[in-house]
Amino acid sequence: MKREHQEAAAGGDRRGGGGGNWYAAAEQEKGKALMGTDDGVDELLAALGYKVRSSDMADVAQKLEQLEMAMGSSAAANDDALLAHLAFDTVHYNPSDLSNWVDNILSELNAPPPLPQPPPPPPADDPLSLQFDLPPAVTEQYTIGTVDLPDGSPCKPADVDELQPEASTASSGWLISQSGHQPEVAKSLRDRKRLKVCSSPPSSTITADAATAAAAQQVVIVDSQEAGIRLVHALMACAEAVQKENLKAAGAIVKQISVLAASQGGAMRKVAGYFAEALARRIYRPQPPRGMGCSSTVESAALDDMLHHHFYESCPYLKFAHFTANQAILEAFAGFRRVHVVDFGMRQGLQWPALLQALALRQGGPPSFRLTGIGPPQPDNSDALQEVGWKLAQLAKTIRVDFRYRGFVAASLADLDPYMLLGPEADGGGVEDDEPEVVAVNSILELHRLLARPGALEKVLGTIRAVRPVIVTVVEQEANHNGRAFLDRFTEALHYYSTMFDSLEGGASPPAAVEVGGHDQAMAEIYLGRQIYNVVACEGAERTERHETLPQWRARMSRTGFDSVPIGSNAFKQASMLLALFSGGEGYRVEENDGCLTLGWHTRPLIATSAWRAAGDPLSTSASCRTASS
Amino acid sequence: MAGSNEINANESKMAVPLNTWVLISNFKLAYNMLRRPDGTFDRHLAEFLDRKVSANATPVNGVVSFDVLIDRSHNLLARIYRPAPATAAGSVPLLTDLYQPPSTDPFPVIIFFHGGSFAHSSSNSAIYDSLCRRFVSLCDAVVISVNYRRAPEYKYPCAYDDGWAALNWASAVPWLHNGKESKPRVFLAGDSSGGNIAHHVAVRAAESGIEIAGNILLNSMFGGNHRTESEKRLDGKYFVTIQDRDWYWKAYLPEGADRDHPACNPFGPNGVKLEGLPFTKSLVIVAGLDLVQDWQLAYAEGLKKAGHFVKVVYREQATIGFYLLPNTNHFYEVMDEIKEFIQANL
Question: CA of B281 to nearest chain A CA: how many angstroms apart?
Fold first, then answer.
């Protein structure tokens, strides 16, 4: 009966464009569905975001059944505790990896329940102003607040360049904490689970394919008005003319754009302005004014830092980056007495007060903390890098964390060698010599620059591997601004920055910064404008804003011998709750993507955090499995 | 108790392909963890677990999608799906191309409300992105998937209000108009809670003189205080329990309301009379292993008694969620029914 139906349908149906093809495709699909696939992953579930090997399907089903029965019997016994434990205390990782996700829950079921412990009390005699701001739904597991860097410095350099980054003003970071009261046993259990999650092959198969497949062209239209559409159309037409090297036509259109842009309001007008300016430079190629050029200079480095700080204050993207990276670092450092963070982009060290604070509050006491900060050459021999380190040392002293700092000036990360980063291990004699020092490498919006010079990224990834870190945290813009064709880059960038600018308009800074909100936003727009300029007007080694997407970074990292360390639901939840503190925060969305977290505006992810470890590294492996000694 | 769970697992396993069983059981497990006994919902964990996909203006199997902010005050987003515009192969369509009618012939505009019992999923959930793309390919439709506000944070009537806003928005969009007509040929569609929303938006449309070409209700979510025979017989047998249905209604309905509230039970004691209203034609699809079926069949009866056209498609061996994976006859034959219904009423 089934067969007759299909034949009749296939024969008789010619209506509509999709008619004939529909049935052929449907049959093919159905055949695939019934037979499974060769390379192992169930294609139908993969299309819905779940990676399960066909050969594992029965096993996963059996585990689901087991869970069903366990939960069923506890429900019958009116035991809400189990369900609550599973829901609340369990940290979930990478739901796409269904088999491991289910295993994770099963192991939680079989593990002894955690002893209820009170959270560590906030240090009452702390000179810092620690504000613990608990959103309504939170329990004692989460302590969320802000940490301020101490003001002022007794050793100000003699000449203060007016372009010095405003590091002396208090900068607030999002405080992180461990899921506080889990006993040590549970912690190593969690690490073993995360390790297991890392090593499942389906991840690498899928990501390799995803990277080679065309990246999704994400379009979010926030202003459906006719004028906005015409403006975008004009920008695209201009870019197309530039790609075809029809500069006369391009020049004519770019003039129209300013007219159209003037009639627009808000974000679209500003974005159009920056894109039009970048297009104009490309068309007419005059000398760029100071500070807006393609080549980064020593002067522009300081300006960069200042703008970066304003971007940090005006919207949550960098705070999210620091927060999620810190969470991954904190988890990787669990149980170790000597830890070392290498920061590839030290700037004003905005990320580190929160990590220091979390380490100070760690169960069993803080580790010895070493920080290596990398930064570009600064103008006037001023030593911003050292100054930041000094301030952090002050903070560490007040919260009683043993802290050592070293700054490295490097024009490019590719100039670094492993021995520079590792340095002498033992600073004092005695007990410390026996404790291994574990390293975290942290890169916030730095790796993409390396793509401007062939071989540079590979060298840096090699250097990272040589340092044998327990965790590598990478944050990058979630966009492909590095396509070969100019028009593709332009289109991607237009959609990306339109969404970014819209979020600046829509999501104002938290109440604390409201009085300088306008100023922050204006500076943040300039910060983004410089990126737009670089993507559109520059080429070759000067085009450093070579953003790539998560699938692309995954492919690179896994090719170079790194495994993904999934970021869990605890970090996700806390990041989401912190976003609620931003007024206009309704539009911000945190999403989980195959072990990585992204922050976006509405449905468009704009920044992505991922964590990595060296594949098959015995030190990393044993490090993660270590049970802590208190 | 453990014994009966085992029987339930075996029964449901026999009713659906293994990968479907795994998919729906996975949702069931996740959802059990998200619903708290006190009526609150672990929204953050829900968003963490939900598999989402981005919109894509690059054609995939001849379909493009993009997101639109319909209403800034509520952050009401919708994902628009449409046949790929006829531009050079492989290139990304220009924004202006996306905003052209897909055809000079009449084409359906399907306003789709995703399921999730009013609490789960989003318009960018992978399962619904997949389904909406199918609808486009099925009948060259433009599909507007509405990201309505969800319970328990947003109770009745928020979901209906958002549906109504989407309908009004779509009615005013020039490129959705059909040929010489000054309005689109709108079908309202939804599964589970989405079906319920489609009904209530259709009622508002009928009351306001907005013409709807047809309603498509897939395993739609209705209920009432009374426990029907199918609820009692199928409780816990095929992924769904009476207890979880009750939880979702409590989360959606106003404080203190019971399940005879008209939102839940439109033809119950508190229902609105539909006689004489220009209410649209309905296609009501019922799964024979869905414990809510008696309410869905009663709904269809209610429409008939009020003088409105309704076609019931009863799939005896189908469970909930059969339309999520293209691996059964239920899937393909129901898609055929939907296509036929749309083409007959275009």
Answer: 22
